[in-house]
């Protein structure tokens, strides 16, 4: 067994040093070895006090999340920390890096805490659907009080060492010599006694709040976290620290709540995403030895919303961006817009004026493509026209240096066809950003038939540098995200013709947890955008006059959504708040009558099932067609780019939860009742359902 904990004697101090890369997470082996080291420390009469510190970049980053899937074996962290706290010699935690979850709980069980300047601490359990389960909900309130504990544990936010000091979560912050400072404090405690410093023995710093206070907290937590149970359980656990019950009773209550939380769907979903988001850059067959190309400067063609956002995404990461628009005037206008965006960040206190100026210095706007001759990567972000994009790529092929990567930000067009006009299709790829590109985390990296492995590796490395969550896609209309969205929106629009109201459809989708209803999304993006894209590909659309008809009718009226004050909804010009648009709904009803579509009551369940089954079925087809590598990648796309509720894991995690057999039966039933051309279950979905498999199994290579 490798040595994860060492005990070294330094004078009268025992240094308990944890070394479990990459993040010192608490695996079973680590717990076993820490217990053995604590016992050795306790038994060594020469050691009067201890320091608990970590090697590597960080103090303990919490429990090993993988263990929650496989079952947690003894010794349990909560028991180990009780033993640590009960020692008759003091131990001081020496914190650096990011102390998270079970890591902070470990520090709380120590008798004092010293942090290196720059350390950050958090209880991220809520973001993983977990009730802290190693004494944190009982010890933290005794140190920093109940309101501050609720704040930290319900938000999961990081606090700096200085804030932790102010809260009373750490006792001292040092600029250097962390272990020495901790050792000094430990020896002081050895001299004065540490019994009163056991968090379990302390009283709350202020009078315990009333039961009503906790009810209010539960109400607020439920409101901020709809459809979830764990946030309220966190309040329950913290409430136990406020009662007159003994500490041990509070710990037992926390243990029950924490163990139960691990089996909730929300926790499994959130943990699934934690690992899924870290796995997307693993591309089977891509040689790890391939070095990424250096990217020090980037060119962007097109100064519209997308191009400007992309330029800001690079500049924010310290990478120089050259933005090219059709003329010097247009380029100057684009730069002015970029400045405005940063100025509003400065106004809101999100950025300093100096940081704004230094970031702006990285963005150079020009009116001629010749400026791109020496950049390492070009991203074309002009509007969706194949002819225009091919013209630009022809030009880029002439201008750009050998080895430059040439990317298009198209969201729909065939990148093989774009690459074909160049003499270097192996350097061409899709980089599909999501608007606003400097904010949204998702990036689809689209691989054509000819994109080289080196270019794919370089694109993932570039994405990491600009802090995007990148997912690999193959070429098809809409790639992963937009392709899957198409049938989802199709059903929503079709139900408008069948008699459901705009508000009803969006209401059901929002209640499920989507950040916005799809019809409000169309209003936000511009109703004309989808209409134009469908117009471009008229020949490949289904033979169905009702297909996305409501959008088409709105566009004909010039009701394009928020930008024109009307769309599926009406918008207040001042506040942008939305109200129903009865004229639009009358328009849909008339059109439905003309097509002979029967109006009826559609219940919430049908609205949700039609939208979600259509989405899941297309997601399965995307997987089946090899457009996405893994089901988990599709889940990552939907959470990072489309407002899918994280606590439901993603479309295919959800499909496994619902049960694939049930979904196939639902699709088959819709085929009988609705337009059969749309309701053919994907072959993959059907075969997984028939064999009792799941998308998760398939990802693990068992499907
Ligand atoms: C908890 O503690 C509950 C308690 O109350 C106890 C209850 C009983 N487990 O993110 P990175 C892996 S809940 C397993 O790329 P960074 C990660 O998968 C836990 N593995 O690095 C990756 O592996 P790979 C509370 C973990 O520098 C590698 O480490 N704690 C864990 O960008 C590097 O990770 C948390 O929620 C883990 N806990 O960020 C902390 N953490 O290379 C979660 C990381 O194979 N972790 N890995 O892909 C983080 O937030 C970030 O990883 C961290 C480092 C900030 C630490």
Q: Which ions, cofactors or small ligands are bound in this entry?
A: (S)-3-Hydroxyhexanoyl-CoA
What is the average per-residue confidence, as pLDDT, rounded to a whole number? 96
Spatial order of strands in the largest sheet: 12-11-10-13-14-15-16-17
Work out the number of β strands: 19
As a percent range, the share of helical residues equals 40-55%
Topology readout:
Blueprint: E1 5-10, E2 13-18, H1 28-43, E3 49-54, H2 67-70, H3 77-86, E4 91-95, E5 98-100, H4 102-109, E6 112-116, E7 120-122, H5 136-144, H6 146-155, E8 159-160, H7 161-167, E9 172-174, H8 178-192, H9 211-224, H10 230-242, H11 247-262, H12 265-279, E10 297-301, H13 305-316, E11 320-324, H14 328-347, H15 353-360, E12 363-366, E13 377-380, H16 386-399, E14 405-408, H17 415-419, E15 428-433, E16 442-447, H18 453-465, E17 469-474, H19 481-497, H20 502-512, H21 518-525, H22 527-536, H23 549-557, E18 569-571, E19 578-580, H24 582-595, H25 604-624, H26 631-641, H27 651-658, H28 660-673, H29 683-691, H30 695-699
Parallel strand pairs: 2-3, 3-4, 4-6, 5-7, 6-9, 10-11, 10-13, 11-12, 13-14, 14-15, 16-17
Antiparallel strand pairs: 1-2, 7-8, 15-16, 18-19
Helix pairs in contact: 1-3, 3-4, 5-6, 5-10, 6-10, 9-10, 10-11, 12-26, 19-25, 20-25, 22-23, 23-24, 25-28, 28-29
This protein binds (S)-3-Hydroxyhexanoyl-CoA.
(S)-3-Hydroxyhexanoyl-CoA (3H9) binds next to strand 5 and helix 4.
């Amino acid at each position: 067994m490798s040595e994860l904990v060492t005990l070294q004697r330094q004078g009268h101090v025992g240094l308990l040093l944890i070394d479990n890369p990459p993040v010192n997470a608490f695996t079973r082996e680590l717990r076993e070895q820490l217990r053995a080291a604590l016992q050795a420390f306790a038994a060594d009469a020469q050691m009067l006090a201890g320091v608990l510190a970590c090697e590597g970049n960080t103090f303990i980053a919490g429990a090993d999340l993988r263990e929650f899937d496989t079952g947690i074996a003894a010794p349990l962290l909560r028991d180990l920390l009780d033993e640590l706290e009960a020692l008759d010699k003091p131990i001081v935690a020496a914190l650096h890096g990011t102390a998270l979850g079970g890591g902070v709980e470990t520090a709380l069980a120590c008798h004092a805490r010293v942090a290196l300047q720059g350390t950050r601490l958090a209880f991220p359990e809520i973001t993983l659907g977990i009730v802290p389960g190693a004494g944190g909900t009982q010890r933290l309130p005794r140190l920093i009080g109940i309101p501050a504990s609720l704040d930290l544990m319900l938000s999961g936010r990081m606090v700096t060492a200085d804030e932790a000091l102010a809260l009373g979560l750490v006792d001292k912050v040092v600029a250097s010599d962390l272990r020495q400072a901790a050792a000094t404090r430990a020896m002081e405690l050895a001299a004065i006694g540490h019994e009163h410093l056991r968090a379990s023995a302390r009283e709350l710093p202020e009078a315990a709040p009333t039961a009503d206070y906790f009810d209010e907290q539960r109400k607020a937590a439920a409101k901020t976290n709809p459809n979830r149970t764990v946030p309220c359980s966190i309040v329950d656990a913290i409430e136990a620290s406020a009662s007159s019950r003994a500490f041990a009773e509070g710990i037992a209550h926390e243990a029950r709540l924490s163990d139960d939380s691990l089996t909730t769907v929300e926790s499994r979903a959130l943990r699934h995403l934690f690992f899924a988001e870290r796995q997307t850059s693993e591309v089977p067959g891509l040689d790890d030895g391939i070095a990424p190309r250096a990217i020090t400067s980037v060119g962007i063609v097109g100064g519209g919303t997308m191009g400007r956002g992309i330029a800001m995404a690079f500049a924010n990461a310290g990478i120089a961006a050259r933005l090219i628009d059709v003329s010097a005037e247009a380029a100057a206008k684009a730069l002015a817009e970029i400045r405005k965006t940063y100025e509003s960040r400065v106004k809101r206190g999100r950025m300093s004026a100096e940081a704004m100026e230094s970031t702006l210095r990285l963005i150079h706007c020009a009116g001629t493509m010749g400026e791109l001759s020496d950049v390492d990567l070009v991203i074309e972000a002009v509007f969706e026209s194949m002819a225009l994009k091919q013209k630009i790529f022809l030009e880029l092929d002439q201008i750009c240096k050998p080895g430059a990567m040439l990317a298009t930000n198209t969201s729909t067009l065939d990148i093989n066809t774009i690459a074909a006009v160049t003499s270097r299709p192996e350097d061409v790829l899709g980089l599909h950003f999501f608007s606003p590109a400097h904010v949204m985390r998702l990036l689809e990296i689209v691989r054509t038939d000819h994109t080289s492995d080196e270019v794919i590796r370089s694109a993932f490395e570039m994405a990491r540098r600009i802090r995007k969550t990148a997912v690999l896609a193959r070429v098809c209309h809409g790639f992963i995200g937009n392709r899957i969205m198409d049938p989802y929106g199709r059903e929503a629009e079709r139900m408008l013709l069948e008699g459901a109201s705009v508000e009803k459809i969006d209401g059901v989708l929002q209640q499920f947890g989507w950040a916005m209803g799809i019809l409000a999304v169309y209003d936000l993006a511009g109703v004309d955008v989808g209409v134009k894209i469908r117009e471009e590909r008229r020949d490949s659309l289904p033979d169905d006059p009702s297909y996305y008809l409501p959008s088409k009718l709105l566009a004909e009226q010039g009701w394009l959504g928020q930008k024109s004050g009307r769309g599926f909804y009406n918008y207040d010009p001042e506040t942008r708040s939305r109200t129903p648009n009865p004229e639009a709904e009358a328009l849909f009803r008339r059109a439905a009558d003309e097509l002979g579509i029967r109006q009826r009551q559609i219940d919430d369940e049908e609205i949700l099932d039609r939208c979600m089954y259509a989405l899941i079925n297309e997601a399965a087809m995307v997987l089946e067609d090899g457009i996405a590598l893994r089901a988990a990648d599709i889940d990552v796309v939907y959470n990072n780019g489309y407002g899918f509720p994280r606590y439901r894991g993603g479309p295919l995690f959800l499909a496994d939860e619902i049960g694939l057999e049930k979904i196939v039966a639902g699709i088959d039933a819709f085929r009988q009742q609705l337009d059969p051309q749309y309701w053919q279950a994907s072959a993959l979905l059907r075969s997984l359902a028939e064999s009792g498999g799941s998308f998760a199994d398939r990802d693990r290579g068992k499907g």
